[in-house]
Design brief:
The complex is a heterodimer of chains A (about 375) and B (about 375). Chain A is about 35% helix and about 20% strand. Chain A is an alpha/beta fold. In chain A, helix 4 packs across helix 12. Chain A is globular, with a radius of gyration of 19 Å. The two termini of chain A are about 35 Å apart. With about 375 residues, chain B is an alpha/beta fold. A nine-stranded mixed sheet of chain B has the order 3-2-4-7-1-8-11-10-9. A two-stranded antiparallel ribbon of chain B has the order 5-6. In chain B, strand 5 and strand 6 form a beta hairpin. The radius of gyration of chain B is 19 Å and the shape is globular. Classes of the chains: A alpha/beta (about 375), B alpha/beta (about 375). Chains A and B meet through helix 3, strand 3, helix 4, strand 8 and helix 10 of A and helix 2, strand 3, helix 3, strand 8 and helix 9 of B.
Chain lengths: ~375, ~375
Amino acid sequence: MAVSDIAIVATAQTPAYAHYNGPEVQLIMSCVNRLLDSTGLHRDGIDFTIAGSCDYLSGMPFAFVSNLDGMGAWPPVYESHVEMDGAWALFEAWSRLQVGDIDVAMVVGSGRSSPCNAREVFHLQADPYAMAPLGLDPDSLAGIQARALIDAALTTEEEIAAVVVRSRAAAIHNPMAQVSGTVSVRDLMAEPYDMAPLRAHDIAPPADGAAAVIIATGDRARALTARPVWIRGIDHRIESHHPGLRDLTDSVSTRLAAAGIGIGAGSAPAPPPDVAELHVTHAHEEIILRSALDLGDATVINPSGGPLCGNPVMATGLIRVVEVADRIADGRAGRGVAHASSGAALQQNLLCCLEGDRPCEGVP
Amino acid sequence: MGQPCAVIGIGQTLYRRRRRDVSLDGLVREAALRALEDAALTFADIEAVVIGKAPDALEGVIMPELSLCDALGAVGKPIHRVHTAGSVGASTAISAAVLVESGRYDTVLTVAYEKQSEGNATWALSGGRSGGQGAGGTFAPWIREYIRRSEAPEHIGWMVAAKDRLNAVKNPYAHLNLPDITIEEVRRSPMLWDPIHFLESCPSSDGAAAMVLAAPDRARRSPRPPAWVLGHAKRTELSTFPGRDTVRPRAGVECAAALYDSVGITDPRSQIDVAELYVPFSWYEPMWLEGHLIAGEGEGWKMTDSGATAIDGDFPVNCSGGVLSSNPIGASGMIRCLEAANQVRGTAGDYQVDGARVALGHAYGGAAQYFAMWIVGSDLDVL
């Protein structure tokens, strides 16, 4: 069946706050208000709303229910929720609009990590029988993955540090970033290990924040914005949960998702994307993802500074979409790829290929 | 609009107080394999997987799609996880149907589960606070208000409790097996949350439910009859504000109206042959008959009282035994959807309603604020 044209017509994100002194619902509301303002839509002009969040971050089952207040659920709305990053909510919203009977959807991702110790919380992602009892949290597994990458001679600690140097420098120009600045590889290498061979600066500090987008089908999209950003493809894939069954030095699921949206191996040749925003919460992951996506120097990676400089968990993946879409909408890029990840050591990966009506007008 | 979607495989586990014989992985795989077997397919035929369950806190496993993907044959495929409170099982089924209707996928596996014995549901349902009122404490005053408004006699709740448990005796998967239950016994059971007696409440169950959903080409090649998803609807409203009608929530009324309108139903009571409604406490049968426009206001309890909702009545409700007989929370909504499908496929066994061609599956959640419903039919043009 033919895939319908669906575009991002408005985006919003909050800053990545180390500690936002207020409720998650307020973060959501600020994004929703911005989306409605910029499109001129009223709440009842949204046909479908879907959010992504994680109860455990607030330590409260059904925490997502109160987020409805921020999204505006009166009169009653057609709505759903994924207990995943907002990027997966975008996948479901895109699928819903493909059915063809409705035209406008709002997607939200939100989370507050500051009330909890995210490392302790996310260790409960691990298989509860064999892995969780070992205290195997995502940062520990990231250390194991980075070690495997170095042992395979696919990178060095200096190269990992260089990812941080470049990300922090880029984040200087991003008012939403939590961390930014000019640092050198030499300075970073002098820091102590956290999860060896990773150092504290190689690991994205969890933050509080939210992001949201409105998507719309062809003609509605053109009516809502002069610069629609078309979703040319969206796909996501998962790998085995058991690290011993995976090649930790590669991202097989990213390669599969890339093939799924027609940009991977076996796809028709296409020029490289102008920009890629990658869900890199551990610096070495960028090296794995560059390789899986075959990204070279022609593509600017994480011009926002990426998650290493701002990681509002559950919104981080959707923010990658927002960052790419914003660059296409304002002409800094013509085509880009947004990547979101879930689970430890890049277990699950989502790719979204975005394109404007016009080619890139300048360097992002 | 979109491509049609059909249920071509159904799988359920035994619902029990404790499924000590299986891990979480084993539980979901049991349901998934039965659904695949029913569809005469294997994991290799599945293009995408959608799972659902109630809060992660019920088992203490965050984002369980990550650890369950191997058991569900999802490695290398898309898998995503839905969570919409108690309505989640039906929401998950609808999300999976959307993937087929979108035209992107032709064969989708959907699984919902709960292993309530791994945690403390009343704690979790109280928002993670100890000493909370739980679901029964939340719903009891609204039920009391329904009784006041509708002037229903007290025995209506007892009747529903006995009817659903007697239906469950015919269902080999049901958790509760109470073949000798009587209305009098329900009345005499301890009062938990006035007016809800112990026997008017759902149990806590372990269990999983699964369906294989497919596009028309695949569905027509399937060895057993498909149940066509004729329409679905969801509506959500805020949890609380002064003046909100908690007895007849506007989201529930609008959800039903949208659903019936989308499939051309103008008289639900006569056009729907059988319904599986989410009734965790007995009184929710008449409340949803009214709240979803099957009966007029104040008329729902009269349907129950007249025997219309019995398995041999003119509008049978919860022939499988319903949530009152098996309640693995996250799966309970999906069980309503798949039991509706069982009826129109003619695969409901001893609780089959003869000649059922149109069936309603329904779930609600949160503070009676999340609604998810679907209508399935024996043919695409049955309505």
